[in-house]
Amino acid sequence: MSGAETGRQAAPAAARPAPDGASAGHEVLAVVFQIRGDRLCVLLWRRARPPYEEHWALPGGRLGGAEGLDGSIRRQLAQKVDVRDLAHLEQLETRGDPCRHPRGRILATAYLGLVPAGIDPVVPEDTGWHPAVDLPDMGFDHADIVHSGRRRLRAKLSYTNIGFALAPPEFTVSQLSRYYSAALGHDVAATNLRRVLLRRGQIEETGGSVASGRSGGRPAALFRFRTRRLEITDAFAVLRPPAGS
Amino acid sequence: MSGAETGRQAAPAAARPAPDGASAGHEVLAVVFQIRGDRLCVLLWRRARPPYEEHWALPGGRLGGAEGLDGSIRRQLAQKVDVRDLAHLEQLETRGDPCRHPRGRILATAYLGLVPAGIDPVVPEDTGWHPAVDLPDMGFDHADIVHSGRRRLRAKLSYTNIGFALAPPEFTVSQLSRYYSAALGHDVAATNLRRVLLRRGQIEETGGSVASGRSGGRPAALFRFRTRRLEITDAFAVLRPPAGS
DNA sequence: GCAAAAGTGTTGGTGGTACACCCATGG
DNA sequence: CCATGGGTGTACCACCAACACTTTTGC
């Protein structure tokens, strides 16, 4: 391996970086979110040794020699924190600041992963869920990466059906509105959320319903997402192609 | 400047760090777009040797040991293709398929760069602009990456002010509508584009105007973008916070 | 005056929030 | 029958596409 096709270079002197100290290492990280108790939480583990001893960090690790980036983060989440129930996974960004890791030059490609509400994966002792709005002390640039993940999730909730990855297979509209509230960080009225998602064809009634609680109230209808694959449901409001095309 | 690619020399043991055989190399690429002659074009260079001899490729190259990703692609564009007038640059995606490069495992982080219309950077002999809708034979996964870039640009034209990076400092609305048409791939009516961008506060009149051509017509007013930094001008139509907050 | 290109006014549709109101259930 | 929560109907508004119309120029 390690062919090293150097691309082209103009100014020999400058272009010839250090004896190719180039990428000495590459790691893959994941921002894994789940709604727990009406709050958006992220999965973190606590570092037991330096650097950043006692700080919290994103799950992930070194990229293996023969695996792709997606495969690598899936493997590491399964092996290290026993998370196998990702309903959605997408690449977030790659950080390459030479100083981001005190041990030397390590690039990191971060992913956004979503676990549906309601399930409770068994995670190791040193691993836990933390509210995304109230992060503990975190090492490296990981807190920044969590914020990127939140922004991405917020945006996609608005124009895709990504809600399927936050909600369990069946849910009532009022439950769903709580998931949206938690992820978006502001109130979402159930009454309108129902109409928006129905109009867009994102959700449909299952036919079932849920008995009312002891305090009464009309039984709630159950819904499900029509598909569990990411789709863009709201092409941008503006600048779409003219009708006749 | 910068002629052909100078010898590739297999990176010595230096590139051999990762204990687990992890990342042997990392390159940085750029999809640089410019509107030329009412078409969206991308900057490519023609490979003189294998792999993919005679095919076209995205500009870029190995990441230097002491530079960040952004810095690296800026440096390489400046040195290798003499492009220094990027009005916008953002990270696109990172590809890590172990087989994407026949010479071995090389990760690639791709950027999207935009050069305003009207300027004509001097580029090397083997480098040229190609219509993005009619790409020549391209090596590696570079054609895919160009498509990612187009999708990203199209989306951002709809909800940000990224048009500032396609247009020259001053322009008429009808010119601007041609830039938008080229980048979006469909007609954009000048009459409505003007209103949309004015309402959103993206553009403003400079006061100047352009004399009409020999065929007559009312002189066109000149406009400029109010800012040349990326801003989201159209928060998603849906699911915004309630009014009272 | 006539053609050409820029710019304005207006209409109609879509898709959203807000809020009043009706429905089904438990006590 | 009342409180509680689910569900529907409707008013209103922002935003945009389409198109007719007006303005300003060259010839």
From TrEMBL, chains A, B:
Q: Ranges for the NrtR DNA-binding winged helix domain?
A: 163-225
| Matches recorded under Pfam families | NUDIX, WHD_NrtR
Q: Which domain of life is it from?
A: Bacteria
The record ties this protein, via InterPro entries, to: NUDIX_hydrolase-like_dom_sf (IPR015797), NUDIX_hydrolase_dom (IPR000086), WH-like_DNA-bd_sf (IPR036388), WH_DNA-bd_sf (IPR036390), WHD_NrtR (IPR054105)
Chain positions covered by the region annotation Disordered: 1-21
| Annotated Nudix hydrolase domain residues | 28-144
In terms of SUPFAM superfamilies, this protein maps to:
Nudix (SSF55811), Winged helix' DNA-binding domain (SSF46785)
State the coiled-coil residue ranges. none
Q: What is this protein called?
A: ADP-ribose pyrophosphatase YjhB (NUDIX family)
Q: Which organism is it from?
A: Streptomonospora salina
- High-level lineage: Bacteria, Bacillati, Actinomycetota, Actinomycetes, Streptosporangiales
